[in-house]
């Protein structure tokens, strides 16, 4: 019974304090919302800042590209190379799954290996011819002549 009285007293005390606060408050002391124009001006200010940032994005990207040009190009070439390798492996796996194509391609590879060995690797004169062709190919690719000579 005592707990009910204490609880009621507590509730009554709070509600009486709130009523007294409402009675004592004047209309001039109450917090008022800012006018709608100030809120609108804030939105416009934020909108201007965002539009300025968006207008400067091409400049930022250009500066970033100029600063890291070599790194960006290297990364793009790496991604392209990996993608090309994955595509070529997927195509080869798809071709390899076709019946009789896999053994046929293996026969072609074996035949080319036998031809290359008999053409370039069996005789001394043809090995020298192959060495000259390799040097010419290196010169074409690298654009300079090697200091080392093959014996």
UniProtKB/TrEMBL annotation:
Keywords: Membrane, Transmembrane, Transmembrane helix. Its main location: membrane. The keyword Transmembrane applies. It is a multi-pass membrane protein. The chain crosses the membrane at residues 70-92, 104-122. It holds the Pfam family CAAD. One of its GO terms (cellular component) is thylakoid. Residues 59-143 form the Cyanobacterial aminoacyl-tRNA synthetase CAAD domain. The keyword Transcription does not apply. It is found in: Membrane. This is CAAD domain-containing protein. It comes from Mojavia pulchra JT2-VF2.
